[in-house]
Design brief:
Layout lengths: L2 H13 L7 H13 L6 H4 L6 H15 L4 H5 L1 E4 L2 E4 L9 H20 L6 E6 L5 H9 L3 E7 L2 H11 L9 E5 L14 E6 L4 E2 L6 H4 L8 E3 L4 H13 E10 L5 H10 L2 E8 L5 E8 L1
Parallel strand pairs: 3-4, 3-6, 4-5, 6-9, 7-8
Antiparallel strand pairs: 1-2, 9-11, 10-11
Helix pairs in contact: 1-2, 1-4, 2-4, 6-7
Length: 291
Amino acid sequence: MTWGALLAEAQQRLAASAAVETPEVDARRIVETASGASPAEFARALGEPATTLAAARFHSMLERRSTGEPLQYVVGSWGFRTLDLMVDHRVLIPRPETEVVAGWAVDETARLATEASRGRETVVVDLGTGSGAIGLSVAVECPQARVFATDVSSDALAVARANLAGVGRAATRVSLHEGDWYGALPAALRGAVDVVVSNPPYIGTGEELPPVVADWEPPVALWSGPAGHEAVEQVIGGASQWLRPGGSLVMEVASHRAHATAHMAEEAGFTGLRVEQDLAGLDRVVIGHRS
């Protein structure tokens, strides 16, 4: 059977699934992954026959997607800024709003690097790194950055470690640390960090999430506690102790609590606070500086 016939099968089956909103896009991505064809090779690959092994992989992925498993987990990798990240159920799915957060972390790192003493690395801490999306982006895009990435989940760090292996020379400037927030960091970093960036859990216990998120993504990375801002408070509180004077805090936050989070950071002593929007126009990023 050709890949073109398998593509048609995937489109038909996914179109009949209530869990799939973009059947044609998803079908193409599954065929690309199973066939090994790049987007540029896709049209030519449709006329080629699928091997038995490749067809079996295709049908396995099609079954998983048609029953509602997120496409990112099904294909096993996803683009994030300049990276192609391995992702599975152990980590959050990389999202466009988090790419915006990473972009602000890159900007703050580059700004502080120009102000730092010549030859000194810019120290960046990525709290709750998950797949490593933010921390690895900073390391790749900022050659002067030294990144410390933490996560309480050993499973998440296993994914981050796999992604670390794929970033080339930038990997020499990244270290992964298991533990709860700042407790995972080397004590020598206290008061010497230039940038703290985090996408902490910010969903309250009573808040609803779409089934495609709540049923598949790791709860530890989603749910913060009854109020929804417990993890955010921990990140802000620790940042005031671990950042050097003038250092930057960059956080992804719940859009409906963004300004409350900025006020929380102001009360903790941060200055120059601002709220930035994501690509959907929602308040998503809080940025501030240690006075």
